[in-house]
Amino acid sequence: MRKEYLWLIISGILYGTITAGGQFFVNLGLSLYEITFYRILSVLVLTSIVVLLKPGLLISRKQIPFFMLYGLIGALLGLSMFGGLIYGVPVSIVALLLYTQPIWTTILGKYTLDEPITTRKIVSVITGVLAIIVLFYSWNINFTGTKTGIFIALAGGFLLSIWIIMGRKSGISNIHFISTIFGWKIFTIFWLIILYPLFNLLTHDPSIVNMRLSLPADYVLYFLIFGLIGGLLPHTLFYKSVTRINASEAGIILLLEPLSASVIAIFLFNQYLTVQTILGGLLILASNYILLSGKRPSH
Question: How far is Cα 24 from Cα 275, in angstroms, rounded to an integer?
Answer without folding.
Answer: 26
